[in-house]
Amino acid sequence: MFDRYEGGDYAILVHVDFPTEVNREDLSELKLLANSSGVETRGVITTSRGSPTPKYFVGSGKAEEIAEQVKALDANIVIFNHALSPTQERNLEAICKCRVLDRTGLILDIFAQRARTHEGKLQVELAQLRHISTRLVRGWTHLERQKGGIGLRGPGETQLETDRRLIRGRIKNILRRLEKVQKQREQGRRARQKAEIPTVSLVGYTNAGKSTLFNQLTEAGVYAADQLFATLDPTLRKLTIEDVGDLILADTVGFIRHLPHDLVAAFKATLQETQEADLLLHVVDVADDQQQSNIDQVTEVLEEIDAGDVPQLIICNKIDQIDGAKPRIDYEDGKPVRVWVSAQEGIGVELILEALTQLLGPQMMDATLKIPPSMGKLRGTLYELNSVTSEDVDENGQLALHVRLSSVDWQRLKKRFDSNLDELIVQKNN
């Protein structure tokens, strides 16, 4: 479909610093992205400009310098840390005699490599098709016009129009298939809501340690690596916590600054697990110098997918890389707001469970009840609820039950037995 240069194992990275740019791209992040895609970086070219040029994005002199570096270092791909227009990509490829990729194309390529499930592959293909549909003109300039004469008359449309029609058809087909998957997800969500099982979703900047933490909490064995976008396909696991019961923990795709809109749109069904969660565990790499910027980027994407109002618990991860940092829970107004852990070393993970209990657990009643022999049915019901911690019998045959149950269950028992059960309480232990 494309008359493009092949290759992409040895790269020249290009970063342009725009002093007036509000959200500047990060060169170190580009290096991580390139490494995650599997290419070897042979050179880095940086420059400063007031604004991009329409032809090459950089100046013509700098474009020639890039071409010289490609030849000198035997590179076969140039990766820009910015979004390029189709025209700029075509012009740069013509002068560099190799493939040119922008930041969006690089992220899409990484996603294509990492997708494992049927749904993930469909979502990545959808994003790629939407991205390349704007770039079709570059590959078919020689077929833009229908030609006349014997043997040259076309079927009524140019090759470019044919490919656009084929891409539109493929996009519609993928959307139909994704719609089926989304309906299956919604059925699962409705079943969990009906069973009143809370959902906790892990979110955070890419490579913050979400999957490592997920494995620590659930022993799921999810693929985790020190690279960007190690996780693409959402993974759900059941987690049982004392005083909370069962909950669903979801591991999701990591966020990144200036995440391509095509990807956000394609992964909307996956990100819906985040949107409809009862609580977000926002994992932050506290050893990263740009942690605040990363937090802001995650917040921005959460707002974009209508998940900005979901309650959050900040997980300050990788404390093993900070001198003197110890596992702890930070509180505000009596509620946990931050938990300091090291998922890699397994330090402080139990504090997350403690914080989840405080945030999601119902108000518990810990008390001693005196139950007369005539209320044996109440005793049996308390045992059915697994709320009896111990039992004693006094000389009068009355039962002293030590119970621990949620206040909601206690109120239900009062309605069921149609009596003031509070009179049976002889001692409250909390």
From TrEMBL:
Name of the protein in question: GTPase HflX
SUPFAM superfamilies: EF-G C-terminal domain-like (SSF54980), P-loop containing nucleoside triphosphate hydrolases (SSF52540)
Cofactors required: Mg(2+)
Domain (Hflx-type G) ranges: 198-364
HAMAP family: GTPase_HflX (MF_00900)
Recorded superkingdom: Bacteria
Keywords: Cytoplasm, GTP-binding, Magnesium, Metal-binding, Nucleotide-binding
InterPro entries linked: EFG_III/V (IPR035647), G_HFLX_dom (IPR030394), GTP-bd (IPR006073), GTP-bd_M (IPR032305), GTPase_HflX (IPR016496), GTPase_HflX_N (IPR025121), GTPase_HflX_N_sf (IPR042108), HflX_C (IPR045498)
Positions of Mg(2+) binding: S211, T231
GO CC annotation: cytoplasm
Family designation: Belongs to the TRAFAC class OBG-HflX-like GTPase superfamily. HflX GTPase family.
Organism encoding this protein: Idiomarina zobellii
A Pfam family assignment: MMR_HSR1
Quaternary state and interactors: Monomer. Associates with the 50S ribosomal subunit.
Cited function: GTPase that associates with the 50S ribosomal subunit and may have a role during protein synthesis or ribosome biogenesis.
